[in-house]
Write a structure and sequence with these properties.
- By secondary structure, the chain is of the alpha/beta class.
- It has 20 helices and 12 strands.
- The protein has a 5-stranded mixed sheet with strand order 2-12-10-8-9, with helices on both faces. It has a 5-stranded parallel sheet with strand order 4-3-5-6-7, with helices on both faces.
- Helix 6 packs across helix 12, helix 7 runs antiparallel to helix 15 and helix 15 (291-305) runs parallel beside helix 19 (408-429).
- It is globular, with a radius of gyration of 23 Å.
- The structure holds 5-phosphoarabinonic acid.
């Protein structure tokens, strides 16, 4: 049978707004391993302080310290230039996007999430080059036609070694086939507006270059040109993505956890860590195309919160990614019966782009009578409910974020929600959620090994 395409229904808030069900994170639902509501109340002055600090540090648009939380408005001015470059990229059949960590994970997550549904019209195929894998890059270039391929090199610092080296290889491949001048018209860079090797190169060679706002760190940059350029080129409605972020920002204006979903989530994750020793934070979408969203979340959470506080104590919980239903058959056993150090967040989808009925021939009817009239959508929904139920029955704290649909708007809400939760959590822990000193020392040491200044 052919899948049915879900017709867009008339929008109600439930159709367009994500919603959070945090009941099973509280002790009154799951017992002693949940958070006591009184503990959230007792934290209210601290939460109001975190909110005030966040609000203060957001003032000033792209110049603000927390500019990453203003992007829905602050990027509006640059959108026409981004969209015009995206239009030029659409003349190509393939676009290679080079970048690593925050310069890559967000765009991969959104591209994957929207691969099946919410595209205005298909654009060039995006190929992501992040980790160095000589065989992968060799084979990728062997399958592409240089005259039909553009490249976007994304690096905020403009000198990250994985990005720079792979860009050099790809440039040489383009120049060899196309000649230097034609090759230059096929290259874009997204980098710091003033500094770094990529910026300097773009000046000497006249390459198209879009800025990464200096105050926005890599892992918070998907809603800048870092994500918007390749996503717009591939047909994603980037205005809807930003509109979704704005919708969520507007829901998070209150200093009270009861009226601010990001503040409530930050309070819960924080209290589950410091009061209940829940040191692993597992994100488990029951949506396969949100698998890479898990990777984006993992970096955001780990790199922002995994820090030492001024008193020397460690902050942050270890983010773990999973995906339903696969990890029921992989990690669930350990989740349930091993150490009781975990909090679970499920992402559940209300309405899929397609409904796929399950054909039930005579040969299958006796074995699967309960599948009569069911769709694949029903099977996954049952698996999600069952997993959540068993985790709740075992007394493990868990939350569910319901996504009404997988659209650019809803993803914008989700991205903004997570960025806000992370910044609030950082303030609660008393650390800076925006820096990454350990990552920077790793980068410096790698260069020293290449220079021969360091040996094994
Ligand atoms: O979030 C971060 O700051 C890092 O993960 C960076 O994005 C990553 O190291 C890549 O850096 P850059 O964009 O400077 O190439």
């Amino acid at each position: 049978m052919t899948p049915h395409q879900n017709k867009p229904a008339v929008s109600s808030p439930a159709d367009i707004l994500l919603s959070i069900d945090a009941r099973s994170a509280y002790a009154d639902a799951i017992g002693g391993e949940g958070v006591a509501r009184a503990d959230v109340d007792a934290l209210s002055a601290e939460l109001a302080r975190a909110h005030a600090l966040m609000t203060e540090r957001r003032r000033g648009g792209l110049e603000a310290e927390y500019a990453c939380l203003n992007l829905h408005d602050a990027m509006q001015e640059s959108l026409p230039a981004i969209e015009s470059d995206a239009e030029r990229l659409r003349a190509f059949t393939d676009v290679i996007v080079i970048g690593i960590g925050g310069s890559n994970l967000g765009v991969m997550a959104v591209a994957q999430a929207l691969a099946y549904g919410d595209r205005k019209n298909a654009g060039p195929r995006l190929h992501f080059v992040d980790n160095i894998d000589p065989d992968y890059l060799h084979d990728l270039l062997a399958t592409l036609r240089a005259e039909a391929t553009a490249v976007i090199a994304v690096s905020k610092s403009g000198g990250t070694i994985e990005t720079a080296t792979q860009y050099l290889v790809i440039r040489e491949w383009l120049e060899r086939t196309r000649g230097r001048d034609a090759a230059r018209a096929q290259q874009w860079v997204v980098t710091d507006p003033q500094q770094g090797w990529l910026r300097a190169l773009s000046r000497t060679e006249g390459l198209r270059a879009l800025p990464v706002p200096p105050k926005v760190g890599g892992r918070y940059s998907v809603l800048t040109a870092v994500g918007l350029l390749p996503l717009a080129a591939s047909g994603v409605d980037v205005r809807a993505l930003l509109a979704g972020a704005r919708t969520n920002a507007a829901r998070c204006e209150s200093p009270r956890a009861s009226d601010n979903p990001a503040l409530e989530l930050a309070a819960l994750y924080y209290l589950l860590d410091v009061r209940k020793d829940k040191r692993l934070s597992i994100l488990m979408p029951y949506v396969h195309s949100l698998r890479l969203f898990g990777d984006w979340y993992r970096q955001l959470w780990a790199e922002s919160l995994g820090k030492r506080r001024t008193d020397g104590t460690p902050a942050g919980t270890l983010p773990v990614t999973a995906v339903g239903a696969i990890d029921q058959h992989s990690q669930l056993q350990m989740y349930l019966e091993s150490r009781r150090d975990k909090v679970f967040t499920f992402l559940a989808l209300g309405r899929w782009t397609h409904e796929v009925p399950i054909p039930l021939p005579e040969s299958a009817r006796a074995t699967f009578p309960y599948l009569a009239g069911k769709r694949l959508n029903d099977v996954l929904a049952a698996e999600f409910l069952a997993t959540r139920q068993v985790i709740t029955d075992y007394g493990h704290p868990n939350l569910t974020i319901h996504l009404p649909r997988l659209t650019a708007d809803v993803l914008g809400q989700l991205i903004d929600l997570y960025q806000r939760v992370t910044v609030y959590a950082g303030i609660l822990y008393g650390i800076n959620p925006l820096d990454q000193p350990a990552v920077e020392s790793g980068k410096r040491l790698a260069v020293q090994y290449l220079q021969g200044a360091k040996q094994t």
